[in-house]
Amino acid sequence: MSHPKRSSYSRFAITLLAVVLLVCLAAACGKKEDKVVGEYEGGQVTASEFKQYKTFMKVMNPYYASIIDEDSVQESVLSSYIGMKILSARATEEAKTQGTEEANTNFTTIKDQIEALDADTKKSIEDIMKEGDLTYDQMKSFITTQTIASKDADLKVTDEQISTYYDENKDSFKYATVRHILIGFTDKEGKTREKADALKLAQEVKQKLVDGGDWTALAKEYTDDTATAENGGLYEKANPDQWVEEFKNAANTQPLNEIGDPVETEYGYHVIKVEARGTSTLEESKQTILSTLSGEIIDKFMTDELPGLIKSMDVPKPSASPSASASATASASPSASPSASAPASPEASASPSASAGQ
């Protein structure tokens, strides 16, 4: 009497199992395989992860927005990312603990900066993140990976190495604190200014300063160096070696607290006042030296060891041109240099660094 019931139950179970298998197969068929774009000893990077990382790089550094999809740039970025993942995984427990704490602080700061942006710029950044499938949690993960790798290198640097580096490179720790107002050969509106007109205006500005004019007010009104327009033309405790030759010479030789004659550089005429000169102490220079030496440790790994650990890389081809809104991050990216929009800065580099005013 019981046999028909067991038979019905068995048929029902088999039918149910078949349905489940069909559903699973359909789900698997409908799911796009996440291609591996990088494989290395101990791990791999998928296409979706790399897409998120490239987006992270765009948000953190606007320079990458227009070039990130070039083959050579993708390969460099992927290689560097793999290197950071390896270094982070190898890091000591101390480095992981300290690095995670520091990364949490950094992430909070960056997110707060994004939140504080004007509505249009914030939307531009969030659109880029959405387009690149980058969430804030993933951003935090990338920051943590980088910070742990850097922290591990920091902990390998000894006080003796820092002291030795300082003694052997003392000239690089010389500084000058200067104020300047630049009358550029190109004005704020991008119009060309004749050299004679620039010199005449620079001389007028100098006289206003000699007569007791306020640096803050005059810099805001006249200077074409947007990096210092809002702080009275001040570059505080900066290394003169980073500046173009004529400006460097003035910073090194002009009498202190005197307003010198306009100094011509490739950017225009600078009215300069040197407020201080000196050499940073070992204690003041420790963090800078630590960053230099730990950077050398990471660079050595990237150059000497990493190539032997990477098994394969297959960077994706770009599917579309960079987002039209990408350029909106150039002046608002959390990591953008405050002087990134200052092509008329006296720095030797065409694109001034944030260190100029530090």
TrEMBL record:
This is Peptidylprolyl isomerase. Keywords: Isomerase, Rotamase. Residues 318-358 have a biased composition (Low complexity). PROSITE patterns: PPIC_PPIASE_2 (PS50198), PROKAR_LIPOPROTEIN (PS51257). One of its GO terms (molecular function) is peptidyl-prolyl cis-trans isomerase activity. Residues 312-358 are annotated as: Disordered. It comes from the Bacteria. SUPFAM superfamilies: FKBP-like (SSF54534), Triger factor/SurA peptide-binding domain-like (SSF109998). The lineage of its organism: Bacteria, Bacillati, Bacillota, Bacilli, Bacillales. Residues 173-276 form the PpiC domain. It holds the Pfam family Rotamase_3. InterPro entries: PPIase_dom_sf, PPIase_PpiC, PrsA_foldase, Trigger_fact/SurA_dom_sf.
